[in-house]
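Morning run. Coffee first, then this:
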Amino acid sequence: LKNYVESNPKVHCGNAGFEDLSFLFKVLSINKVLSIQAHPDKKLAERLHESSPNVYKDPNHKPEMAIALSEKVQAMCGFRPINDIVKHLEAYPELCSIIGEQARRELTGNIPFDQARDVLQNMFQCYLGCSDECVQNELNNLLIRLKTIEHRDELQNLMLSLAEQFPNDAGIFAPLMFNVITCHKGEAIFIDANEPHAYISGELIECMACSDNVVRAGLTPKLKDVDTLVNMLTYKSQSPDIHRGCFVDDYTLRYEPPVADFCVEVIDVPSGCSYEVMDVDSPSIILTLAGAGTLQQEGVCSMDVSFGKAAFCSANTRTTIVAGSEGIQVTRAFTNVFYSDTSKYELGF
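And here it is:
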């Protein structure tokens, strides 16, 4: 595909400002929690790529969006409100021991608004910088205590599950600091650059800016770059928004994030119907999620598709979806041609 696009980028990529696909498009089926990670913004990505090109292989940012395909997708995303973290410090003395007395005092004191970021950063740095011996002792204390609780809540069960997947990893404490969210089918979250996150379970569509840059810090056997992660995060302390997209017509539900790199649509065409997908000044990838049918492109070519089959569409070409006997559901990713610097987040997402 890369060679095909590069053979005539003007035709295939249009005039959206990119000479290659601006996005990566994936389907994830998560049985084991993915690593605690964040993706750098463009300025940081350029610096990391210049200093460590073997680790950070490109100079691009990597905001991303996840849309739930299964009835329940669970993820950690961003820091909890500070009051929630303080409640967990009271309920889980093991976490207090991990972060230390000074960080605990800072969190439980009266924090001026302009110092909240520094307080959270210090807590997170203490947490990730804690000695292996201390982490193991406190993990043992935590797990022994949790296993004696007869009626555990979801958070406690999650920490036990993480301990089974990644024994002895400090990331087991992460749900006490990060928001744990549940998206139901069709719901979406947008994760901007420099925001910590980890997908826990479920099946989802993931679309992101075209980059391989990942900064990890826990729940992973892969390279951890703790210093970079601690310094790059925004330390926003709030519950993340869950979005449901916007219908553009009877068939198409559009998820339009506040970045130029990508946009996603989910298109449902009932049995016996055909639907002309709006052409955009961007390359598109169409992936079949359910059912079967035919993709027809301006009398030039046609392609029979069913579950799991994907098609590439060049910029400014019209595609008609003809549904089979059971109907068809597809998802389409393309450069966010609707984005502008003055776009409002709520309007399209």
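The chain is about 30% helix and 30% strand. Good start to the day.
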